[in-house]
Amino acid sequence: MLSLSEQLKHRISTVLSILSSIIFLQTLFFKFTGADESVEIFATMGMEPWGRIWTGTFEFLIAVLLLIPPLRFIGAIGGFFLMVGAVFSHLLFLGIVVHNDGGLLFGLALFTLASCTIILSIEWDSRPAP
Description:
130 residues; mainly alpha
């Protein structure tokens, strides 16, 4: 039986995984339909259309992995690195505010990066063996 501390960690990991998956999945519509904002973001970085499509594909895969408890650690690794790229893209190319969103995309990237970092910390002992 799990201790109270372990139960709390498991719940935190589960909630953060669900929230991160929702964030990843809600952006897919815009990436895969070629929404103007998505196209402009990736064009600004010189990665349109291939970067938009590949990023959407990786986001879908990561979202699925985060929702499967035995694969959550792998999903969190992918989410961590994808969000590091998103944060640096905002800081270096896009800016904090994109299309007058008040920094929403940047904030979601920071939240998801922090969530994946916490998930990695919690799930460290249950990571797949090398």
